[in-house]
């Protein structure tokens, strides 16, 4: 029985690798922009740093000027809403929301608005105040990274239309 299981797993793996199967987000590896200009009001903001890191990880050169697409980070907004409460009336869970507004200006001066929103829940454990702050900061950093990934995905879709 165990040998049959191994043969079945091996045959499925070979079949999927031989038939040209690709994951849905494989378009991310087919990045066409080789250079992009990134404009932002604060080049050291969390979203700007996450965006630079994401673009560089995709092999995109960030340039200061030239006839290249311009990604403008217009602004971010964060929101923290109470999602649930304990019996004593204290906040138990929060819904963290990050909204990012950007625009992509192509070399022919056509502008495409890009808006992304990322939400996460955060359990508020009042017994571990220091750990709570570190965990919340890690969640926010991950949300900025995810927003940068969503912006890149939308840039790819604009590029494919262009």
TrEMBL record:
Pfam families noted in UniProt: LptE
Lipoprotein recorded as keyword: yes
Signal sequence segment: 1-24
Subcellular location: Cell outer membrane
Keywords noted in UniProt: Cell outer membrane, Lipoprotein, Membrane, Palmitate, Signal
InterPro entries for the chain: LPS_assembly_LptE
Membrane topology: Lipid-anchor
Quaternary data: Component of the lipopolysaccharide transport and assembly complex. Interacts with LptD.
The protein's role, per its UniProt record: Together with LptD, is involved in the assembly of lipopolysaccharide (LPS) at the surface of the outer membrane. Required for the proper assembly of LptD. Binds LPS and may serve as the LPS recognition site at the outer membrane.
Family, per entry: Belongs to the LptE lipoprotein family.
Protein name, as recorded: LPS-assembly lipoprotein LptE
């Amino acid at each position: 029985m165990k040998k049959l299981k191994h043969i079945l797993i091996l045959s499925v793996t070979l079949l999927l690798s031989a038939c040209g199967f690709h994951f849905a987000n494989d378009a991310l590896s087919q990045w066409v922009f080789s250079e992009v200009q990134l404009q932002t009001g604060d080049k050291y903001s969390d979203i700007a740093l996450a965006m630079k890191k994401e673009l560089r990880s995709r092999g995109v050169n960030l340039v200061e000027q030239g006839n290249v697409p311009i990604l403008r980070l217009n602004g971010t907004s964060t929101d923290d809403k109470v999602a649930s409460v304990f019996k004593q009336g204290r906040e138990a869970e929060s819904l963290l929301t990050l909204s990012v507004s950007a625009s992509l200006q192509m070399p022919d001066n056509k502008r495409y608005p890009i808006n992304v929103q990322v939400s996460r829940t955060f359990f508020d454990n009042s017994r571990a105040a220091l750990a709570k702050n570190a965990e919340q900061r890690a969640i926010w950093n991950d949300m900025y990274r995810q927003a940068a990934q969503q912006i890149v995905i939308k840039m790819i879709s604009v590029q494919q239309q262009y």
